Amino acid sequence: MSETPDSPAETGLRAPSGARDMASRAAELDAADPLAHTRDRFVLDAAPDHASGDASVYLDGNSLGALPRAVAGRVADVIAREWGELRIRSWTESGWWTAPERVGDKIAPLIGAAPGRVVVGDSTSVNLFKAVVGGVRMAGKGCTEILVDATTFPTDGYIARSAARMTGLAVRPVEPARIADEVTERTALALVNHVDYRTGRLNDLPGITHALHSAGALAVWDLCHSAGALPVGLDAHHVDLAVGCTYKYLNGGPGAPAYLYIRESLQERFESPLPGWNSHTDPFAMDPAYAPAEGIARGRVGTPDILSLLALEAALEAWDGVSIEAVRTKSLALTDFFLECVSAYVPPGRARSVTPYDHQRRGSQVSLECPRAGEVMDELIRRGVVGDFRRPDVLRFGFTPLYTSFADAERAAWVLGEVLGALPEVGSGTAGTGG
Amino acid sequence: MSETPDSPAETGLRAPSGARDMASRAAELDAADPLAHTRDRFVLDAAPDHASGDASVYLDGNSLGALPRAVAGRVADVIAREWGELRIRSWTESGWWTAPERVGDKIAPLIGAAPGRVVVGDSTSVNLFKAVVGGVRMAGKGCTEILVDATTFPTDGYIARSAARMTGLAVRPVEPARIADEVTERTALALVNHVDYRTGRLNDLPGITHALHSAGALAVWDLCHSAGALPVGLDAHHVDLAVGCTYKYLNGGPGAPAYLYIRESLQERFESPLPGWNSHTDPFAMDPAYAPAEGIARGRVGTPDILSLLALEAALEAWDGVSIEAVRTKSLALTDFFLECVSAYVPPGRARSVTPYDHQRRGSQVSLECPRAGEVMDELIRRGVVGDFRRPDVLRFGFTPLYTSFADAERAAWVLGEVLGALPEVGSGTAGTGG
Fold this sequence. Notes:
Radius of gyration of chain A: 22 Å
CATH architecture of the largest domain in chain A: 3-Layer(aba) Sandwich
Largest sheet of chain A: 7 strands, mixed
Largest interface: A-B, 90 and 90 residues
Function (chains A, B): Catalyzes the cleavage of L-kynurenine (L-Kyn) and L-3-hydroxykynurenine (L-3OHKyn) into anthranilic acid (AA) and 3-hydroxyanthranilic acid (3-OHAA), respectively.
Helix content of chain A: 25-40%
Binding site for pyridoxal 5'-phosphate (chains A, B): 124-125, 153-156, 222, 225, 247, 277, 303
Shape of chain A: globular
CATH superfamily of the largest domain in chain A: Type I PLP-dependent aspartate aminotransferase-like (Major domain)
Strand order of the largest sheet of chain A: 4-10-9-8-7-5-6
Region (Disordered) (chains A, B): 1-27
Oligomer: homodimer
Number of helices of chain A: 12
Pathway (chains A, B): Cofactor biosynthesis; NAD(+) biosynthesis; quinolinate from L-kynurenine: step 2/3; Amino-acid degradation; L-kynurenine degradation; L-alanine and anthranilate from L-kynurenine: step 1/1
Distance between the termini of chain A: 25 Å
CATH topology of the largest domain in chain A: Aspartate Aminotransferase, domain 2
Protein name (chains A, B): Kynureninase
Number of domains of chain A: 2
Number of strands of chain A: 15
């Protein structure tokens, strides 16, 4: 992982590309795109059309992924046949009971995990609690602190503090780049975001994990903004615990269930703070004494939320035959091209990128700082370019390689250039959720 | 609440009703049923037909409620339009963000709560953890123990023990009928099932709550097997905290999100052990410091699971114009009639009820003990009568007044009589989940 600093000044936009026709470049890139065919697996608006001025570009898949075509039919069948006709029999006959592990195994290859290491269910926040408390309980007896990514999406910090309070430890916020220097023999674990939700900075998962292990601490990664956008390599890098959502680059739907990864060698030592009956070794024994299940089922809690879980399972069909490496290649090409288009179309000085230019440190979004960013995003959305706004001054544009085209990137930058070239007098406040 | 003991011997089935034609009685009762019309709000098989021998009777709504007709269309629209077309805009424009409180307010009247006291999301187990830890934190400083219903559905005990471990308290199992005698000034709270999942016994919520309060302890109720089947009266009885699932008598679908009730006067003192970003007073401030929301939103955790939550919202339309008192009246009439039919049809000595005969102590299910109960239930299901089996020897039959008819009850008892009259040589093991 590069040691290049990424202060805003040093990651500023490159010089305009001059007279080159970016729209033609986009068409060429789309024609050569080996993932162009997967766009049809999603429900999207018509492609952007320069001639008509109709721009409908969705660059908010880092908040809520677009709808995969397979979802509607699958959910209709789950409701009408599995629930409506088979009813209770579906817990066995339709595979409902085993869905948390089965869907986990479908996510696993996208994050570099072997089967049996990922279980789906509950929200990201709830899984963070399981991971942090479970991690503390596996850590050495003398540990007194949890390190938390100082730039984290806030829920990670809130949950880490609650877990620390309930296990008698302290929380210390540390910049991800400083973790290797700050970790001590008193550190139980560090909870770190793989990609920063605000800037799109990719943190050094292999390096930070190794540094933590060298000090005897566990590495707990939040994959919300990386899973489905780039290779994660959980098994390869010996990550201990990880959590992630499924509604961003995995396109599982609004608030779709999250997942928990537990390294195979740690599973038998994992003690969940949420030992619901679904994680019992024999749930239907209705045993008053808790005995945890073997393997990743130990990460389950209550009865799985079947409609959402099976919607997610259908959504994951969009990955059939797709390698995460190909996704990463296209992701970098898209964000490179978008930054280039922004340089070409946006008047100098009107916006600057806070996303690292270095490929080694970039996720799959581009975040631009500009004045009156809330109003700017409102206007972009009115003109059909949907990104989102994070206070106080960040425009976020997410690039989902399975369905975002180079034409989308070019069109978005063109509209952004128009809007920033003549800052309109408009209201503020935008929709959005999911970090 | 009656003090009548309910040992199996004293709640045994009544004598056969003689020559009275139970099928005709059922038809009369159905014709006079003021809730007969709500059956059409659900997708069910054809009514049982004695002439054809075709018996399709669903008596497992206490595990998984049948499908309400309103669900499929609503979910299809949520997927195709709200997610597929509006995408991220739906968090505000389609009311996704406020759905946990809005759906909570729709459940509230069914459990005797005013608006603003119920929030929907997460599983029952996760809500139990919030309620027990939150309750302990509101209890007196000198408290050292949590009382847990000794006959509880096991997840309540598992979660209570985890909460106790993490807050430094002990857990003491106590029979519900003994709580008033066992509570002491060192008791932080008691976690009690309103209706016992196995026997269908209704515990004395007003009396136990009052006894706990008299000792300075909080009352935390699990409503999984009572909500939607009988009046609960949370506000009226000054219950402190309550949780429940929505997939039994509320028909929200498999694993549908659960809910948390917090008494109004306690909400500002409630400190959640799961302070996710959705419970922050200003979630989009992305504030590194946690500041809990006012009111019941404080019980939220992560991003709400929209597909399941809105399926539940549609399911709750089945309650339009229905009073929970009318439901209770029919529930008791149904279980009375079923017990009478069982007495008439089942050979003497082949089964005995473990459900209290006293109306004051009966929920909305009938549980019968018999030898080889697993095999018996398998055979019942093969013949179209769907109840469920709980080890080692209990047959459970749930009665959902919104869609169960007296003809269903009569037909189920008739088939049960046939099966118990000639115990078949069949395999064992049945499907089912949800407690």
